[in-house]
Amino acid sequence: MSIKNIFLMHFLVWAIFIVYEVTLIRVALGLPTQMVPTIVFYIINIALFYSNAHLVFDFAFFKLKSHYTAAIVLIVVELLLYFLLKCGLDRLISPSSQGRELLTRRYILVNLWRGIYFIGLSAVYWSMRYNKKLRERNYMVEKEQLIARSNNLELSNRLITVENAYLQNQISPHLLFNSLNFIYNTVYLTSEKAGNGIMRLSDLMRYSLRTVDDTKEVMVTEELKQIQNLTELCKLRFGDDFYLKITKKGTLKEIKIIPMVLITLVENMMKHGDVGDRLHPARISVVSSENRFQFSTSNRKRNHALLTKNGLGIVNIRKRLANFYHENYTLEIVEEIDLFKTNLIIMR
Question: Inter-axis angle of helices 35-51 and 105-187, to 10 degrees?
Fold first, then answer.
């Protein structure tokens, strides 16, 4: 409900209440009513009604610890101020009655009773407001709990779906590794070189499946071991026309990196680069210092090379590095007429 509608509703209720009381005084009791005193009377009583509900009760029950004691004390103070204000206004409006009617026992009791009466009405109004807010708060709490339960149920369903998919996907790698082991046992008797190639391929694929989590790092030495498997497989492919030089500098035992980044750079070099030129071999450089790790590749380009600075492999590597290392890395891609270079630096 809008503020305008709430104001209009309160105005109508007070109008009906005032008309009822004035009519009762004039018709039923036969007492005269004067407009100015009546207007002033209802203004201070309506002010008492709202100040009690919105100030006294809210402060006593929402701000203080001893709710009922505080409310009683504040109501007594409120009644005293109300009585003094009413007395002062009556003296101001009817100065001729100062010596005859004011401060009599009947006057004091009547005005205190009216004050208590409007405070009682105010208490009912405050209770209705409080119960309404309590119901709304309980509704919101229950709604949030239902939403949370729904989200948890949805999350559980997603987890079950993912787990089922994961278990189903396990069939394919296990089938692949079992098949590779069978092929290795069959081929090794005929060709030791082919058998070794199958085992290196199996190790490489097992490593790639085992290190799919980008929130964890692996030892650089393990990544380099898999690069060695990859280069050995490439030697089987290219035979004697395979030229690659790998240089290492610094201590690598304690260094970690997110998996498959270095392997992807080398794999792109093997796939798209020219590694068959004896005079211009492909190069891999690994340098470790106290606070940084550097991995560089360099290879001659083929005439039909597909890899570019914005290739899918490079884009994915940049995203993974940015997600994990944020500002603590640089990846430079240099593409010349006949050379392609990558230079990865990770600050530690």
Answer: 30
Are the CB atoms for 265 and 208 separated by under 8 Å?
A: no
| Residue 246 Rama label (left phi>0; alpha psi -120 to 50; beta) | beta
Degrees, nearest 5: CA angle 155-170-271: 110
Supply angle C-alpha 94, 100, 102, rounded to 5. Answer: 65
For the chain, the residue count is 348
Residue 59 CB coordination number (10 Å): 13
Residue 149: predicted pLDDT: 74
Contact call for residues 320 and 261 (beta carbons, < 8 A) = yes
Per-chain mean pLDDT for the chain: 77
Q: What is residue 88's DSSP assignment? A: H
Query: Within the chain, where are the H helices?
Result: 3-23, 35-51, 58-62, 67-93, 105-187, 192-210, 220-238, 261-272, 312-325
> Which two tokens mark 21?
């009381």
Q: Cβ distance 214 to 261 under 8 Å? A: no
Report the half-sphere exposure of 277 (CA within 13 A, side-chain side).
14
Contact indicator for 60, 70 with CB cutoff of 8 Å = yes
What is the residue type of 186? T
Q: What is the residue type of 140? A: M
H, E, C per residue of 190-245: CCHHHHHHHHHHHHHHHHHHHCCCCCCCEEHHHHHHHHHHHHHHHHHHHCCCCCEE
Packing angle of the helix pair 35-51, 3-23 (nearest 10 deg): 130
Q: Which residue did the predictor score with more confidence, 77 or 21?
A: 77
Residue 61 near residue 71 (C-beta atoms within 8 A): yes
pLDDT category at 54 given cuts 50, 70, 90 is confident
